[in-house]
Amino acid sequence: MKIIHYCAHAGGFVYEWHRYHMISELEAAGHQVIDLNPVEILGRIGSPDEYSEITLDKIREIYDRAGCDLFFATATDDTIRPGAIKEISRKGIATLNLSCDDLSHPFRVRAISSSFDLTWTTVRENQHILRSYGANVFAMPWGAN
User: Fold this and answer.
1) Long-range contacts at 118-123 (CB < 8 A, ≥ 24 apart)
2) How far is it, in rounded angstroms, from Cα 117 to Cα 96?
3) H helix or E strand, kind and range, residue 90
4) Distance in angstroms (rounded) separating the CA atoms of residues 78 and 92
5) Using one digit for the tens of pLDDT, what is the confidence trace for 90-126?
6) pLDDT number for residue 12
7) C-alpha to C-alpha distance for 14 and 27, rounded to whole angstroms
8) CA–CA separation, 25 and 37 (whole Å)
9) CA-CA distance, 76 to 64, in Å (whole number)?
């Protein structure tokens, strides 16, 4: 499976934990994972509009060259626009947003949640909030590798 991993963070551990805890496991299972970080591409913190434009350009490039199966994001309302997610879905690419952290996180994904095919929350108590936004939600807590 070819997976685009989307994370718009400025680096450091807040970004690197994805590699340690998710990406390495997906790669070990035989999946190809392509990182897409618009902050690194821009070289600075940007707006959701800029991030969305960069993301769609990269998705088109990757999809047109070799296809893509999954857009796996850890996105919030300030890192991508709902329209960009919908455009990715229209290409036939499945979209998944990992919504983790504490009980405040659902309030940072209010605008984008319903645009994803699936929202994964690690906090069972967040399911009803995410569903109220129109999200297709499943809860699965973190596990050890």
Assistant:
1) 118/94, 120/96, 122/98
2) 6
3) helix 82-90
4) 24
5) 999 999 999 876 778 889 999 999 999 999 998 888 9
6) 65
7) 20
8) 19
9) 26
> Amino acid letter at 12?
G
Q: How many CB atoms lie within 10 A of CB 96?
A: 18
Q: Tell me what the pLDDT averaged over the chain comes to.
A: 90
State which amino acid sits at residue 129.
I
Is pTM beyond 0.85 here? yes
Which secondary structure element, helix H or strand E, spans residue 26, and what is its range? Answer: helix 24-28
Q: Give the type of residue at 106.
A: P
Tokens found for residue 72: 């796996």
Q: Would you say 78 and 11 are in contact if contact means Cβ atoms under 8 Å apart?
A: no
Q: What is the pLDDT of residue 61?
A: 94
Amino acid at residue number 54 = I
Query: How many Å apart are CA 30 and CA 3, to the nearest integer?
Result: 11
Alpha-carbon gap, residue 85 to 116, rounded angstroms: 7
Our CA angle for 7, 11, 12, nearest 5°, is: 125
**Inter-axis angle of helices 48-66 and 82-90, to 10 degrees?**
10
Backbone angles phi, psi at 17, to 5 degrees: -60, -25
Return the H-helix or E-strand segment holding 75: none
